[in-house]
Design brief:
Blueprint lengths: L32 E13 L19 E16 L2 E14 L7 E14 L3 E13 L2 H4 L6 E13 L5 E14 L9 E12 L5 E18 L5 E16 L3 E14 L7 E12 L5 E13 L7 E15 L3 E14 L12 E16 L2 E14 L6 E13 L1
Antiparallel strand pairs: 1-2, 1-18, 2-3, 3-4, 4-5, 5-6, 6-7, 7-8, 8-9, 9-10, 10-11, 11-12, 12-13, 13-14, 14-15, 15-16, 16-17, 17-18
Length: 399
């Protein structure tokens, strides 16, 4: 998870069945908590413009830079009768030493309620809001772009009999861009799902979910009229096994994606994967995941994509106040509909990343973190292939 300061930052509500299990799932949640703090991050990036080695630096720009971010952080949850209200996230501002055109507010916050109705029905209603500068590799140009994202999630179900739990879900997300070169990538997505889960003992659970989702690019008009849109239908099964120090999950499903864009390639195929979170001892925690999914992004000049992603991470507690974390990921995205009319059009990208981090808490209310990341990406777009090495210092203070 990297160096996260003092509070749990907004991670959003994951509605896809292919989401990997988390080490946090091994810890007991705190029903009532109030964690408020301030955080300062200083990041050095030797390739903030995301330039390939042979690409010249644009005038009045700097390839490397230092970004300073000062944020207020919150993680609050309160049990009110049978309902649990929560708010978690961070809000701050990015300052750049050289590339001042990139300075921007940075917000990522999720609020909602874990609701219960009677003794059998429960679920979650949440809203997530994010705002910040787009990574220039996705944007496809060294320009300023404000990316606003909003996600509404409504999930719930009722227990019938012993361990049988029908489930229903709704998710709506929107992504809006401020830069003229990326307005055609504004995204509106709406997903409905229904399924049934069975978990009698709490140690082994199974689920089957059917879903339908529409990915709409309202500003990307087609010659025959209307906007570019893709409809996805899926049927997915999931098995989750829980032990004292381990959670394992396997997912397998089938997806059909049909696009209105005559230049797009439709997709029909398998999705899914597996993930593992294991704490073999009191000091060590390990996670691993691999998955394939079909999704869309509001950042790139393309329609929906098929992504293959693998991640590994290990965290080790050194003494009482020091944590070491190592991790890496590989990801390949194949875009099934290329928007050739937009800047930075691409049909694929491949990303590799290695990360090492140290976190130190000399006292309960103060935390220092350092992190080093090396990343590289390859794409067939004119802009977006790059290598980058980043160093991060984090200072967090609980109020």
């Amino acid at each position: 998870m990297g160096v996260a300061g003092l509070a749990v930052l907004a991670a959003g509500t994951i509605t896809t069945l292919a989401a990997p299990v988390s080490l946090d799932d091994l810890a007991e949640d705190v029903a009532n908590r109030a964690r408020l703090g301030m955080e300062a991050r200083v990041l050095y990036d030797d390739n903030v413009l995301r330039l390939d080695a042979d690409r010249p630096v644009p005038p009045n720009r700097s390839k490397d830079d230092v970004r300073t971010t000062v944020s207020a952080v919150v993680d609050v949850a309160q049990q009110v009768s049978r309902q649990r209200v929560f708010l978690r996230g961070a809000a701050g501002y990015d300052f750049y030493r050289e590339n001042r055109f990139l300075k921007r507010e940075r917000i990522d916050a999720t609020g909602g309620v874990n609701w219960r109705a009677g003794s059998r029905c429960d679920g979650e209603a949440s809203f997530r809001y994010g705002r910040g500068q787009t990574d220039l590799s996705d944007l496809g140009a060294a320009v300023r772009n404000r990316r606003d994202s909003r996600t509404l999630v409504l999930d719930g179900g009722c227990t019938l009999g012993v361990g049988l739990h029908p489930e229903f879900g709704y998710r709506r997300r929107t992504i809006e861009n401020s830069a003229a070169i990326r307005l055609r990538s504004d995204l509106e997505a709406e997903r409905f799902s229904a399924g049934i889960a069975y978990d009698r003992t709490g140690r082994l659970g199974v689920a089957l979910v059917a879903a339908s989702e529409t990915l709409d690019f309202p500003n990307r008009r087609l010659p025959e009229g209307g906007g570019d849109a893709t409809r996805m239908r899926s049927l997915t099964g999931r098995v989750t096994a829980r032990g004292t120090d381990l959670i394992a999950r396997g997912v397998l499903g089938y997806v059909e994606a049909d696009s209105r864009n005559p230049g797009a390639r439709d997709y029909s195929g398998w999705v899914g994967g597996g993930s593992l979170a294991w704490a073999p001892g009191p000091r060590l925690r390990l996670t691993a995941s691999a998955r394939r999914e079909v999704d869309a992004s509001g950042d790139v000049a393309a329609g929906y994509f098929v992504a293959d992603r693998g991640e590994l991470a290990a965290r080790y507690r050194i003494g009482r106040a020091l944590d070491l974390e190592l991790g890496g990921l590989l990801e390949r995205r194949r875009f099934r509909a290329v928007d050739v009319a937009s800047t930075g059009a691409r049909s694929f990208d491949r990303t590799a990343q290695a990360r090492a981090a140290l976190g130190w808490s000399p006292v309960d209310r103060f935390r220092i973190g350092v992190e080093a990341v090396h990343a590289r990406r390859t794409t067939d777009a004119l802009y977006g292939t790059y290598r980058s090495t980043r160093g991060l210092l984090v200072l967090g203070l609980a109020l």
